[in-house]
Specification:
This protein is mainly α. It folds into three domains: about 100 residues, Orthogonal Bundle (Fumarase C, Chain B, domain 1); about 210 residues, Fumarase/aspartase (Central domain) (Fumarase C, Chain A, domain 2); about 100 residues, Ribonucleotide Reductase Protein R1, domain 1 (Orthogonal Bundle). Helix content is about 60%, strand content about 5%. The chain contains 19 helices and six strands. Strands 1-2 form a two-stranded antiparallel sheet. Strands 3-4 form a two-stranded parallel ribbon. It has a two-stranded antiparallel sheet with strand order 5-6. The longest helix is centred in the N-terminal third of the chain and has 37 residues. It starts with 15 loop residues before the first helix and ends with a helix. The mean pLDDT is about 95. Bound molecules: arginine (ARG).
Length: about 475
């Protein structure tokens, strides 16, 4: 009998080049645990409905466990002539059990089998990613707590904008990674629908019980339409989209810290263990981990593009093109989990150079917007207040000074109240970064009380 699961229809063997061209065992072998898990549930169900004997199901499950142990120990010999992990495991089962092994594939097809395995794998991958994201969030929360009270410049267009608490800055990333966790949890819902039992495309004429398999494998529901099942890779596109967004968040953060670690900024003291040197320039300490994090994001987004192009023109139901989904998904997952694993300790071990930040914090008119809001609060129309402060900033630039250095009279004049130097003096007291920061009030702002509340909430939520 042919080693191929479909050998009966064929007279001759497969061309060696074709075997090499069509195999997936070199990359789908990492699904072996999930394949075995799904097959165990399938065998149990076949016995429940009387398609095989209970003793046969027991023998199949015991042999599947042995095969799993063998693969785990690196003892299985993989061969491209057996195409994929499903065929390898089935062949190993038949080698052990003969005709009993030949019964396992009853009422299923590799089309519903492969997508079941991948869904089980994605569920595990999402759970692992959630753990990595929590670790990274905890690092940011720990930094927020360690640097609480430190004021840093906030930027828009990478130009100094308004002062923010360092804790506010770190917690901004906690929010992004929280959304990433929510997105993954949402993707998990649609991945958690059982494909098995859709068989090749139309279902089965045998009395299979899909509900039994669903409950054994912990799926939330059973896929309703068998034709949809073998073509559906939506959950993979969603998964790789969620990965792409995580990578994008990491990339933006990495870019920011690359900039912050330059001599020009000098805001950060990156840990030596997460940097590398130069083979020719002895003084260099390069932020390679951050750069690679930024760079690897391209791979992940590329995987998403690849998947879209892969599925965009496929008719129902299974098409062999779909075998190409796995490398993109595995690579995107490996890349993002690798990035997350190094990001968490890097964040935890990086300290702000508080002295450098403080020595330049009064540069760049970080208090200008709060000054404008102070004028608005005193009844000056917003656009007029904007104009007044803009002119004062221009004056400071000419005189190479700060807003707080201007004489009281300049404020009174700018406000059209010459002589009323009391107004000017009162306004001046709200200048400077410390005053500007203390003036914030709104929900979600960088106001110290707001940030303290957020920090406390995150500490509770993340168990820090
Ligand atoms: N190796 C295949 C894949 O990964 C398994 C499904 C093959 N199905 C088929 N009808 N040839 O997609």
């Amino acid at each position: 009998m042919s080693q191929k699961t479909w050998g009966g229809r064929f007279e001759g063997g497969t061309d060696a080049q074709v075997e090499k061209f069509t195999e997936s065992i070199t990359f789908d072998r990492r699904l072996f645990r999930h394949d075995i898990r799904a097959s165990r549930a399938h065998a149990a169900m076949l016995a429940e409905v009387g398609l095989i004997a209970a003793a046969e199901a027991d023998a199949i499950r015991a042999a599947l466990d042995e095969i799993g142990t063998e693969i785990e120990a690196g003892k299985m010999e993989f061969s491209i002539s057996l195409e994929d992990i499903h065929t390898h495991i089935e062949r190993a089962l038949i080698a052990r059990l003969g005709d009993v092994g030949r019964k396992l594939h009853t009422g299923r097809s590799r089309n519903d089998q492969v997508v079941t395995d991948v869904k089980l794998w994605v569920r595990d991958a999402i759970d692992d990613l959630d753990g990595l994201l929590v670790e990274l969030q905890r690092s940011f929360v720990a930094s927020a707590e360690r640097e609480a009270g430190v004021v840093i410049p906030g930027y828009t267009h990478l130009q100094r904008a308004q002062p923010v608490l360092a804790a506010h800055y770190f917690l901004a990333y906690v929010e992004k990674f929280q959304r990433d966790r929510e997105r993954l949890a949402d993707c998990r819902k649609r991945a958690n629908v059982l494909p098995l039992g859709a068989a090749a495309l139309a279902g089965s004429s045998l009395p299979i019980d899909r509900e039994s398999v669903r409950s054994a494998l912990g799926f939330d529901s059973v896929a309703r339409n068998s034709l949809d099942v073998s073509s559906d890779r939506d959950f993979l596109l969603e998964f790789v989209f969620a990965l792409s967004l995580i990578a994008t968040h990491l990339s933006g953060w990495a870019e920011e810290w690359v900039i912050w670690s330059t001599t020009e900024f000098n805001f950060l003291d990156l840990p030596d263990a997460f940097c590398t040197g130069s083979s020719i320039m002895p003084h260099k300490k390069n932020p390679d981990v951050l750069e690679l994090t930024r760079g690897k994001t391209g791979r992940v987004i590329g995987a998403l593009q690849g998947l879209f192009v892969l599925v965009k023109g496929l008719p129902l139901a299974y098409n062999r093109d779909l075998q190409e989904d796995k490398q993109a998904v595995f690579d995107a997952y490996d890349t993002v989990s690798g990035c997350l694993a190094v990001a968490a300790p890097l964040v935890a071990q990086t300290k702000l150079r508080r002295d450098v930040i403080a020595s330049r914090i009064e540069d760049g008119f970080l208090d200008a917007t709060t000054l404008m809001e102070g004028l608005i609060a005193r009844g000056v129309p917003m656009r007029s207040a904007h104009e007044v402060v803009g002119k004062l900033v221009r004056l400071c630039e000419q005189r190479k000074c700060r807003l707080a250095d201007l004489p009281d009279a300049e404020f009174a004049t700018a406000l059209g109240e010459p002589g009323a130097s009391a107004t000017g003096a009162a306004i001046k007291q709200s200048l400077g970064v410390a005053n500007a920061l203390a003036a914030f009030k709104s929900y979600g702002s960088t106001a110290p009380t707001e940030v303290a509340k957020q920090l406390a909430d995150w500490k509770t939520k993340l168990g820090v």
